[in-house]
Amino acid sequence: MSPLILASASPRRHELLARLGVRFVVEAAAIDEGVHAGEKSLPYVARMAREKARAVAHRHGDHAAILAADTSVVIDGDVLGKPADHFHALGMLARLSGRTHSVITALCLRRDGRETHCEVETRVSFVTLSREVCERYLATDEPWDKAGGYAVQGLGGAFVSSIEGSYSNVVGLPLAETWLLLAEHGIDTLLGAPG
Ligand SMILES: Cc1cn([C@H]2C[C@H](O)[C@@H](COP(=O)(O)OP(=O)(O)OP(=O)(O)O)O2)c(=O)[nH]c1=O
């Protein structure tokens, strides 16, 4: 059987999937990540994962097994993607300061033309951040390729006072749900079948 294709350029996703011991290759998908007018956060994140999987499926036959994911930060119903520039990132951190937000990762697994979806939500609470703290954080360059402009696995972890739900979900690939999804499609991991 040919290896699973991970449709992702994210080094975090590569590292997390590798932990499961799955044989995979990487093929990034370039899609338009714009939010449609009136589109809610959950359908948006699910659509992004689906479009990434389909973009890669397009280059292969129907038999290829493809895993794609999308992670977004959601606050007050608004989707925060990756910051475009310094002021955008500053605005995101100011919104997250002293409050609780959601991190949603959607997974899409395609195999033999069949698609399986799953969306996972983690609630993350931030301590209050001063403007100076945000500026110092932005100077580290950590926020740029991260949804919401922070990395829980890096220095941004210092902003997190509590977390409810899957930690790996915040980093970009929920390990438990990924394992279940792979098993459902008969894709072997180091752990074998769940349950
Ligand atoms: C909130 C948060 C996000 N992230 C990352 C996970 C994702 O890589 C990124 C969200 O952007 P995504 O568009 O989900 O992923 P990506 O562009 O990095 O990779 P690809 O589309 O090719 O799969 O933010 C962290 O690494 N740490 C965090 O704490």
What is the fold's blueprint, element by element?
Layout: E1 4-6, H1 11-19, E2 24-26, H2 41-57, E3 66-75, E4 78-80, H3 86-96, E5 100-111, E6 114-126, H4 131-138, E7 160-164, H5 167-171, H6 175-184
Parallel strand pairs: 1-2, 1-3
Antiparallel strand pairs: 3-4, 3-5, 5-6, 6-7
Bound molecules: thymidine-5'-triphosphate (TTP).
Residues 8-10, 12-13, 28, 52, 69-71, 73, 82, 103, 145-148, 150-153, 170-172 line the site of thymidine-5'-triphosphate.
Overall geometry: globular
Would you identify the CATH architecture? Answer: Alpha-Beta Complex
Helix content: 25-40%
Number of domains: 1
The average pLDDT score comes to: 95
Assembly state here? single chain
Supply the helix-strand structural class: alpha/beta
Bound molecules: thymidine-5'-triphosphate
Tell me the series of helices and strands, N- to C-terminal: EHEHEEHEEHEHH
- Count of distinct strands: 7
CATH topology: Maf protein
Terminal-residue CA separation: 24 Å
Rg over CA atoms: 17 Å
Strand content: 25-35%
Cofactor: a divalent metal cation
Site (Important for substrate specificity): 12, 71, 153
Catalytic activity: dTTP + H2O = dTMP + diphosphate + H(+); UTP + H2O = UMP + diphosphate + H(+)
Function: Nucleoside triphosphate pyrophosphatase that hydrolyzes dTTP and UTP. May have a dual role in cell division arrest and in preventing the incorporation of modified nucleotides into cellular nucleic acids.
